[in-house]
Design goal:
The chain is mainly beta and 117 residues long. It is 0% helix and 52% strand. It is built from no helices and eleven strands. Strands 2, 4, 5, 6, 9, 10 and 11 form a seven-stranded mixed beta sheet that branches. Strands 1-3-8-7 form a four-stranded antiparallel beta sheet, with no helix packed on it. It is globular.
């Protein structure tokens, strides 16, 4: 089992920045693809960004391209999501997830991000 704990959420004004972190513990997540997802009130969970084990491959939702950056530090079992130029529509609960094979099998409890003036 892999346990994932997100942190770094909060309230920020439009145009501001936040950095989310995801700390993994338990079974090593060596070789796992990692991702960030979000769920806004009344909406389904949606993909935000993902990163391969080697950090050689990243993917982003069109809505966050150029504003968000995903990174990982395998030595520290940590994945981060740097979010810049935040918009009110970025308001959601953000989840970290680990993908050992083809499916995201492990999920964190989520951290709230609210973008409002």
């Amino acid at each position: 089992q892999v346990q994932l704990v997100e942190s770094g959420g909060g309230l920020v004004q439009p145009g501001g920045s936040l950095r989310l972190s995801c700390a993994a513990s338990g079974r090593t997540f060596n070789g796992y693809h990692m991702g960030w997802f979000r769920q806004a009130p009344g909406k389904e969970r949606e993909f935000v960004a993902s990163i391969s084990w080697s950090s050689g491959s990243t993917n982003y939702a069109d809505s966050v391209k150029g504003r968000f950056t995903i990174s990982r530090d395998n030595a520290k079992n940590t994945v981060r999501l740097q979010m810049n130029s935040l918009k009110p529509e970025d308001t959601a609960v953000y989840y970290c997830a680990a993908r050992p094979t083809v499916l995201y099998a492990y999920w964190g409890q989520g951290t709230q991000v609210t973008v409002s003036s």
